[in-house]
Amino acid sequence: MLPEEIRDGLHTVILGKRGIHCFPVIDSTNKKAKELAAAGAVEGVLVVAEEQLQGRGRLDRYWFFSCGENICASVILRPTLIPEAASRIMLLAAVAAAETLIDVAGLRATVKRPNDIMVNGRKIGGVLLEMSVETDAVEYLVLGLGLNVNTAIQLFPTAIHHKATSIFAETGKHVSRVLVLRRFLELLEDGYNIFRECGFAAVKPRWIALTDIFGKVVSIRTGNGIYQGIVTEMDGEGFLIIRDEQGGNRRFFSGDIAII
Ligand code: BTN
C-alpha cells in the first residue's frame, strides 16, 4: 500500500490526513507509531506495513501477520482524557473494525471482549491500544489494527488454523486492503468524534449491536483469578456486568472471556 493510495478517497478530517508512513517490513507498527508520537508526531499520523516481524497483541501475545495480504496499521491519537476514559477507545475501535467488515465484505462480524473481532466463531482481527500517560492525563495513544484480509486459511500457522479466519476465507473473494483500511479509518474517526463529544454512552449501542455475549454463561480470567456468571448488561462506562450463581454482580472491563 502506498500513502497516496490510502489518502486519495479517504473521507476523514484527521486520521490518515496528517502523515502516512508506509513500510515494506517493520518490527511493529505500534512500536513505530509510539516512537513517532514520543518525538512529537501529531494526532492522525498513520503507520502501515506490508510485513510485520514482531507484531504484538494484548498481553504481549504474538500476532501472526502474512506479508502483503492483510492490514497492519497503527494510528496516533491525542485525546484530552484521563487514562481510564481513554481505554474505552479500544472498544470503539473494535466496533469500527467490525462495522468495516460488514460494510466492505458483508460479513456477520461481531466484537468479543476485550479486543477481538470475530466472524463465524473465528478471530479475523484484533485491536491494540497502548498509551503514554503524564501526570494522570493521556499524552498520546497508539491504536493498532491487525485484520486478516486476503490470507487463505492454509497459510495461517497450523496452531491457529481452527480459530483464525480472513475476509478471503469467508467470502472466497480478494478485496482491496486500501478500501478496507480507508473504511476503518472513517468509521474510527466517526466513533472517536462521537465519543469525545458525547461520552461512551453514545457509542455503547453500536458495541451492543455487534455482540452476542448477553445472556451467555462465561468464565472471565483476570489478573485476580477466574470468575463465572451470566453477562447481563454493559454499563455506561463500558464495563460488562456479570451475575454469579449467588446473584452477586461484578463489573469487568478487561480480561479473557470464554463462553461456557
Ligand atoms: C490482539 O488480538 O491481541 C490485538 C492484535 C493487534 C495487532 C496489531 S497489528 C498492527 C499493530 N502492531 C502491533 O504490533 N500490533 C498491532
Q: How would you explain this protein's 3D organization?
A:
This protein has 260 residues and is an alpha+beta fold. Helices cover 26% and strands 31% of the residues. The protein is built from 7 helices and 12 strands. A hairpin with a 2-residue loop joins strand 5 and strand 6. The longest helix is centred in the C-terminal third of the chain and has 22 residues, at 177-198. Residues 28-30, 55-58, 61, 63, 72, 74, 115-116, 126-128, 144-146 line the site of biotin.
Per-chain topology:
Layout lengths: L2 H5 L12 E7 L2 H10 L7 E7 L18 E7 L5 H4 L2 H17 L3 E4 L3 E4 L2 E13 L2 E11 L19 H5 L5 H22 L5 H5 L8 E6 L2 E10 L5 E4 L5 E4 L3 E4 L1
Parallel strand pairs: 1-2
Antiparallel strand pairs: 2-3, 3-7, 4-5, 5-6, 6-7, 8-9, 8-12, 9-10, 10-11
Helix pairs in contact: 4-6
Bound molecules: biotin (BTN).
The fraction of residues assigned to DSSP E strands is 25-35%
Largest sheet: number of strands, sense, barrel closure: 7 strands, mixed
Spatial order of the strands in the main sheet? 1-2-3-7-6-5-4
SSE-based structural type? alpha+beta
Span from first to last CA?
41 Å
Q: What is the molecular shape?
A: globular
Features:
five-stranded antiparallel sheet; 7 helices; 260 residues; binds biotin; globular; alpha+beta
